[in-house]
Specification:
The complex is a heterodimer of chains A (156) and B (282). Chain A has helices spanning 12-17, 52-69, 100-117, 137-141; strands spanning 2-6, 26-33, 37-38, 41-50, 74-80, 82-85, 89-97, 120-126, 131-133. The two termini of chain A are 23 Å apart. In chain A, the strands form 2 sheets. In chain A, strands 3, 4, 6, 8 and 9 form a 5-stranded antiparallel sheet that branches. With 156 residues, chain A is an alpha+beta fold. In chain A, α2 (52-69) packs antiparallel against α3 (100-117). Chain A is elongated and about 50 Å long. Chain B has 282 residues and is an alpha/beta fold. Chain B folds into 2 domains: 3-195, Spore Coat Polysaccharide Biosynthesis Protein SpsA, Chain A; 201-276, Beta-grasp domain (Ubiquitin-like (UB roll), Roll). Chain B is built from 9 helices and 14 strands. The chains are: A alpha+beta (156), B alpha/beta (282). Chains A and B meet through β4, α2, α3, β8 and α4 of A and α8 of B.
Chain lengths: 156, 282
């Protein structure tokens, strides 16, 4: 099981085929897309940046945890880096499983953990011309508060 | 059980050992200019209060130990089980954060995890060794209810606190800081461990990589730096003063050599450090 970073658009057909398994009765996938707004701002594009070595390690640990916690057969996550336009796919998670219930649960677990733990950063460029690193700029404005949990959801 | 109902936790530094394999008193061994008893005592004091030193009756006048509040062995026999039983007997309603005197890499991370994940309903909360999967009894929280079980264990001839934990209801944790429990028993192990600490204070070369907001504020994606900062924490202070980072250290994580690290880890020459601002994948 792997966590991968991709400089190019995610090939979901190829990714899905990696999960095929004669014992699997189904598969659940999640796609995260670039949305045109976040926290009241109009977004025009996103830039993703990753600390490659640790992102791949931590992402791999999350997939391994999902396989331990839920009885699923295979799991894969691919995250984009670089500049993304509106509606581009930023992240893909796929899980194949004997039964559907645990596939939904594992997929949800993986995307939630990836968002909180993997060293990937997102810079939003706004229609108004300025930009900001998500979860960092407001932290800087209010250094007293902890950054976890932060409610953030772009794209999703 | 609600945290309010749990017994309070005191600290106990075990310094009654005979250090037979070391041929020197392990409590008096120095790392980075400070002896191990003081290091363990100060570390524990950051988490629990009060902290005591566990000693044998013959050690009460020993200069390394005498300046500290002591709990003197009050049961016959020798070894850590006697020290732990003596503490439980001295304060019967208190749990003990027990720390051995041969853990030079013990960290705030490890002690925080023990206290956070403590299970007061178990006899003890301990780490599972990253090496052999067995419980680590000498960096653990021992609950008041362990006293009776330890008495019958010792009465039955038992001396090994690890075997005790294997046979009784102990809560075992996977250590998030795997190096914290590496102990030092022989002169060779001491030489190796102390060399890690004695570089602190001397200038060394580190490589720093910057990402996202940190990269923009530092105005570079990497640099090699001559520094005497002994820990990532000190290094962040140094670089903050230079670059005016807007994020407080508490908002960041840190990685050393491409793995998440403790802020108090001792840096060594050649280490690669990355400060990790709040992440935002997905």
């Amino acid at each position: 099981m792997q966590f991968r970073l991709s400089q190019t658009p995610i090939d979901t057909a190829q990714a899905r085929s990696e999960l095929l398994d004669l014992g699997a009765g189904g598969y659940v996938a999640f796609e995260g897309w670039v949305r045109d707004h976040n926290e009241g701002r109009e977004v025009s594009r996103l830039e993703y940046e990753a600390f490659q070595e640790l992102a791949v390690k931590e992402g791999g640990r999350i997939l391994a945890e999902a396989l331990r916690r839920f009885p699923v057969r295979h799991a894969l996550c691919i995250h984009r880096v670089g500049t993304l336009s509106l509606s581009d796919m930023a992240v893909w998670v796929g899980v194949s499983s004997t039964h559907r219930g645990e596939a939904f649960d594992a997929c949800r677990y993986i995307i939630d953990e990836v968002k909180h733990r993997v060293p990937i950063w997102k810079k939003e460029h706004y229609r108004s011309g300025d930009s900001g690193w998500v979860n960092c700029e407001r932290c800087a404005a209010a250094p007293g508060h902890a950054h976890e949990p932060v409610a953030f959801a772009n794209p999703e | 059980m609600s945290p309010a109902a749990d017994p309070p936790v005191f600290g106990l530094i075990l310094a009654g050992g005979s250090s037979s394999r070391m041929h020197r008193d392990k409590a008096a061994l120095r790392y980075g200019g400070k002896n191990q008893l003081d290091r363990a005592f100060d570390l524990a004091s950051g988490h629990v209060s009060p902290v005591f030193v566990s000693v044998r009756g013959s050690q009460t006048a020993d200069p390394t130990r005498a300046q500290r509040p002591m709990i003197v062995d009050s049961f016959p026999g020798e070894g850590p089980v006697v020290g732990i039983r003596s503490a439980l007997a001295a304060h019967p309603d208190v749990a003990w954060l027990v720390v051995a005197c041969d853990l030079p890499f013990l960290s705030d991370t490890a002690l925080s995890q023990l206290l956070r994940e403590r299970d007061a309903a178990a006899l003890a909360t301990a780490f599972r060794s990253a090496h052999d999967g067995l419980p680590e009894p000498l960096c653990a929280i021992w609950e008041p209810r362990a006293a009776a079980a330890l008495m019958s264990y010792q009465d039955g001839g038992g001396q090994c606190p690890r075997k005790f934990l294997m046979r009784h209801a102990a809560r075992l944790l996977e250590p998030s800081d795997r190096r914290a429990l590496d102990n030092v028993n022989t002169p060779e192990e001491y030489a190796h461990a102390s060399s890690t600490f004695d570089t602190s204070g001397a200038p060394m070369q580190l490589s720093i990589h910057y990402y996202a907001l940190m990269r923009e504020q530092a105005g570079r994606s990497e640099e090699t730096l001559e520094t005497s900062a002994a820990t990532p924490s000190a290094l962040y202070d140094e670089l903050s003063a230079r670059y005016g980072f807007t994020l407080a250290r508490e908002q960041l994580k840190v990685a050393v050599n491409s793995e998440f690290s403790d802020w108090s880890r001792r840096l060594a020459g050649g280490d690669a450090v990355v400060f990790i601002p709040p992440v935002a994948g997905g």
